[in-house]
Design brief:
Blueprint: H1 5-18, E1 21-22, E2 28-29, E3 33-38, H2 40-46, H3 50-68, E4 77-82, E5 91-96, E6 150-154, E7 159-162, E8 166-170, E9 177-178, E10 189-194, E11 201-206, E12 213-215, E13 218-219, E14 224-225, E15 230-234, E16 237-243
Parallel strand pairs: 3-4, 8-9
Antiparallel strand pairs: 1-2, 3-5, 6-7, 6-16, 8-10, 10-11, 11-14, 12-13, 12-15, 15-16
Helix pairs in contact: 1-3
């Protein structure tokens, strides 16, 4: 059985708490570099979800450190590696403290040489014939910006266009995306859009479901911004968010 992304997230939080230390000033410092070791089978199972999962785990670690008032000595860095000694379903997380690099010594510019004396130029020679004026080349109108579009792809291959506004997801037949899943609440989650054209953005929010909504293996809390390729889980129903 492969390890689930949500379990990796839980173990990352436990690793943060296990490696925290208190300084003389009373503030708690935590590691900022984490290496997640997975078996070959578990890493292969992640496939294209590995990149988005690392991004979500990094954001979750930053938010947890901020919520708990922990101090960081550098930017949080998370990487996933393969450990041939691990069995499927198992993971190990190592944590380190790596301070940010010190800024390099500034280079002092050498004093510039005094400017050379100006050499008087010869007087301009008037043209013998008048040069006809060249009409300006008309500038073509800019092409209209193509509006970004999004689609929600369910596990059975069904594609649902995510239009601007609110897309409701749930077991209720009145939902924009009705799901036949007993683990899905009647009103389970929503995908909301903001902006328009190329500036449009989408967010997923759980609306008080019983079993929760997962984004890249991490439980959704509040509004979470969606990116192309994000994996979603509503109850036992998997889906993928894509932007075209």
């Amino acid at each position: 059985m492969h390890i689930r992304p949500i379990e990796i997230g839980r173990r990352l939080i436990r690793a943060i708490d296990a490696e925290r230390t208190s300084g003389a000033d009373g503030k708690t410092t935590i590691p900022n570099v984490f290496i997640i070791k997975l078996s070959q089978a578990d890493r292969t199972a992640l496939g294209d979800l590995e990149g988005p999962l690392v991004s979500e785990l990094t954001d979750a670690a930053k938010q947890y450190a901020e919520d708990e008032g922990y101090r960081l000595i550098g930017e949080i860095s998370i990487s996933i590696v393969t450990d041939s000694n691990l069995k499927a379903g198992k993971t190990e997380i190592s944590a380190e403290r790596r301070p940010e690099a010190k800024p390099s010594t500034p280079v002092v510019a050498a004093p510039s040489a005094p400017p050379a004396p100006a050499v008087p130029s010869a007087p301009p020679v008037p043209p013998t014939t008048a040069t006809p004026a060249i009409p300006p080349v008309p500038t073509p109108a800019p092409a209209p910006a193509v509006e970004k579009k999004a689609v929600l792809i369910l596990a059975d291959g069904t594609k649902v266009a995510v239009k601007s506004g609110v897309l409701s997801i749930g077991r209720s037949a009145e939902s924009s995306v009705p799901l036949n899943d007993t683990n899905v609440s009647r009103r389970h989650a929503e995908i909301r859009s903001r902006g328009e054209g190329q500036a449009i953005q989408w967010f997923v929010v759980d609306v008080g479901s019983t079993n929760g909504t997962m984004l890249n293996g991490v439980k959704v809390s509040g509004e979470q911004k969606l990116k192309a390729g994000d994996s979603l889980m509503f109850g036992n129903t998997a889906a993928r968010f894509e932007i075209t």
